[in-house]
Amino acid sequence: MSCQYMAAFGSSLLRSSITFGVLSPLKRPNSIPLFQSSFQHPVRQCARRAMSRVSATHDDEAAARAAATEANSGAPTIFDKIISKEIPSTIVYEDEKVLAFRDINPQAPVHVLVIPKFRDGLTELGKAEPRHEDILGHLLHASKIVAEKEGIVDGFRVVINSGATACQSVYHLHLHVLGGRQMKWPPG
Ligand code: AMP
């Protein structure tokens, strides 16, 4: 399977949408993001493939899967340091359960990440269990609050990349809230 798409669903009844898959191929920077390891992460290799529109090889896909397995070890991520304020971020919304801050590599005029403060095993959406229903609903509602605060509630997109095939790069569940420009469909 290529890195272009994993799966997607949306609602034609709503101007906003929820997408599970990857953002634009232009999403990924060539450089390693701040505060992240200089190790050439297989998932990032996956993103590079998307940028160059070259199909993934079986070897690359296996490497990305191995990286995801390691990432799901439960080790702290860069988002834990953002929650603890150890590293700076531009916070746009916060309550007792979630934190929303601007993405360091924005893919739209508004690009905010919404994360649970307590990860509770939610390294990725694919790890969700029934006990997570409350926080998952809370994250979606917080995304709507962010959209309101950012002035894009009339039309915005919420994206969750889940797992190596979707080129997820930070293993702490996060919702991308994107808006401020015309979105395309299907995403890519
Ligand atoms: P994903 O690829 O879906 O796992 O998304 C991870 C997102 O985290 C990317 O869009 C990155 O740009 C973003 N990111 C990584 N490091 C930081 C940081 N220090 N502050 C804000 N956003 C970050």
Write a structural description.
This protein has a six-stranded mixed sheet with strand order 1-5-6-4-3-2, covered by helices on one side. The protein contains four helices and six strands, in the order E-H-H-H-E-E-E-H-E-E. Residues 1-57 have low confidence and may be disordered. The protein has a domain at 56-179: HIT family, subunit A (2-Layer Sandwich). It has helices spanning 42-52, 58-71, 78-83, 133-150; strands at residues 17-20, 91-94, 98-102, 110-116, 156-160, 175-179. The relative contact order is 0.23. A hairpin with a 7-residue loop joins strand 3 (98-102) and strand 4 (110-116). It has 188 residues and is an alpha+beta fold. Helix 1 crosses helix 2 (58-71). It binds adenosine monophosphate. Residues 33-35, 78, 89, 103-105, 113, 161, 168-170 line the site of adenosine monophosphate. Residues 78-188 form the HIT domain. InterPro entries: Histidine_triad_CS, Histidine_triad_HIT, HIT-like, HIT-like_sf. This is HIT domain-containing protein. A motif (Histidine triad motif) lies at residues 172-176. GO terms for molecular function: adenylylsulfatase activity.
